[in-house]
Amino acid sequence: MKTDDTLVRDYLAVVERESSALPPAARQELIADLGEHIEVALAERPGSVREILQEVGDPRTIAATALQELGDTPGTRIRKPRRRRSPAWLPIALLLVGMVLPYAGSIWALLSLALRITAVVMVCRSAHWTAARKWIGLTLTVFVPVVAHVTWYAVFIAPADSAPPGVLRWTAVALVFVLTVVGCGWLWRTKRA
C-alpha cells in the first residue's frame, strides 16, 4: 500500500507530465501551487490524502485548464515557432531589379523571372500590406508590365519578325518601367510599420 507522501508525489508527477506543453516556469509554478494546496489540506485533515486528491481534480483537467488560462493571459504567451519577417524593402528591390535585368542582356532574363516570382511570393506572404494593397501593388508592378510585354511582343515583334523602330520600343520600355517604379513606390508608401 502506498504511503501518503508517495500518493502525493505520484499525483504531482502525473500533473507535471500532463502539463508538459506549458513553459517550464509556468509548469513549476503550477506544481508548487498544487503541492502547497495539498499540504495545507493535509494539515487540516490528516489521513485523507485520497479524498483531498479527488477534490483537487483530475491531473489532465488541471493541466488543460492551466494551459487555457496561460493562453488567455494578456502578458503571457505560449511559445510558438515564429516565422521571421522579411523587411518590406526586399520584395520591392527584387521587383525593381527583376524589371531592369532583362535589358542588361538576354542571359539575365531567367534570373529576372526568378526574382519577380520570389518578390510576388514575399509580398503575398508579408504582413506589411493588407490583401487589397497586395493586389494593387502586384497589379501595378508585375501583372500590367507582363501583359504589356506580351502584347508588345504579339503586336510588334512576332508578326513582322523584325524589331519596331527604336524610339517606339524604348518609349514602351520606359512606360512599363515607370509603371513598375510607381507600383513599387506605392507599395513602399502604404506598408505597415
* DSSP E strands, number: 0
Structural class: mainly alpha
C-alpha end-to-end distance: 64 Å
Helix fraction? over 70%
General shape = rod-shaped
Order of helices and strands: HHHHHHHH
Q: Describe the largest sheet.
A: none
The stretches of 5 or more residues where confidence is low (pLDDT under 50) are 72-78
Number of domains: 2
| Gyration radius, in Å | 32 Å
Average pLDDT metric: 81
Strand proportion: under 5%
Number of helices: 8
Would you give an account of this structure?
The protein is mostly helical. The protein folds into 2 domains: 4-72; 89-189, no CATH class. It has helices at residues 4-18, 24-44, 49-56, 59-72, 89-100, 109-125, 131-157, 166-189. Helix 1 (4-18) packs across helix 4. It is rod-shaped. Residues 72-78 have low confidence and may be disordered.
Search tags:
2 domains, 72% helix
Give a brief description.
With 193 residues, the protein is mainly alpha-helical.
Question: Could you give the topology of this structure?
Answer:
Layout: H1 4-18, H2 24-44, H3 49-56, H4 59-72, H5 89-100, H6 109-125, H7 131-157, H8 166-189
Helix pairs in contact: 1-2, 1-4, 2-3, 5-6, 5-8, 6-7, 7-8
